[in-house]
Model the fold of this input.
Amino acid sequence: MNSRAPKTDASTPREREREPGINHSHFSVEGEAQNRRLLAWRDRVGHVIDVLPSRADLEKPFQASIDRYQIGELVFTDCRSDLMVLERSLARISTDRVRDFVFHVFLEGSVENVSVRASHRDLPSSPARIVALDMNQPVRMQRQACRVITFFVPGDLVLEVFPDPEAIHGRLLDGSAPLERLIVEHVATLSQQIARMSAPEADIAIHAAARLMIAAFGRQAGLNGDARAAARVAMFAQVRRYIQAHLSDDDLSPESILNTLQLPRPTLYRMFQHEGGIRAYIRQSRLRRAADELIRHPHVAVVEIAYGLGFKSASDFTRAFRRAYEMAPQDFRIQAITKLEALR
Done:
């Protein structure tokens, strides 16, 4: 799988081979000085996601620990931690190789204020028990004091239900539906028993949990069901593929999509309601491509990238980029390149 193993330190994490096929590590901030605990935690998980502490946070007591199990291509973690703000930014994505899908199941506590910057999809503000994330897309969230079980899942499992897997990013479940309650119960049992499981038993249990969660999110998205639903899914995937293949075309628009793919206008607009509309999806896709190109091609002028992705002026591009990513394109490029150089 694409997840890299956590950073290790001979003085802190404990690594051991539980039995062939199962790798286990444990980390806790317990042995750190009080004013170093949150920073030690940030260093430990920073290869996947950034912890954003305020100065006041650094002065508060902080507790956190994590057990990590890897069985074949799947990673399962059991984490207990105090309140924190987490962010996976485009700059972070550009500097690592983590491209899995992540499912968080909260056995205690919850997550709030989940912000998916690459989409205008409205996300519920109520606490969530189960969260789905695509690690190839940005996210910011506030995690309360909690115990959370996390699954790192390769894309081919998500693809079994989601023809366009990135559409699962940022989806939340409150845990109240029967299938969702079953998931929480299954995960709670798995967390209690995994230390005593054989590798084949753990592999089966983790795959079962992953498929249950993907099915629950598929049901939420209306992707399970009859032939009509399957046709809608296929049509949606076709449109998204067309858009991604034509982001550099000046004339890419709802009209060009309708004319090329011969779709009913109401159908096209309904498909992208959850993205804030078809025009918003096109613009956000162009901004995401621009962010990638700013990093991959540091010597190409910002204005050249903007014009190459259909923006009519440099100022229009800069305004749109700043609204989406809270910084100017040039500042984003500098920040990402600085992080890349720091990792070398």
Q: What stands out?
A: The two ends are 22 Å apart (CA to CA). Confidence is low (pLDDT under 50) at residues 1-19, 118-122. The first helix runs from residue 37 to 45. The chain has two domains: 14-220, 227-343.
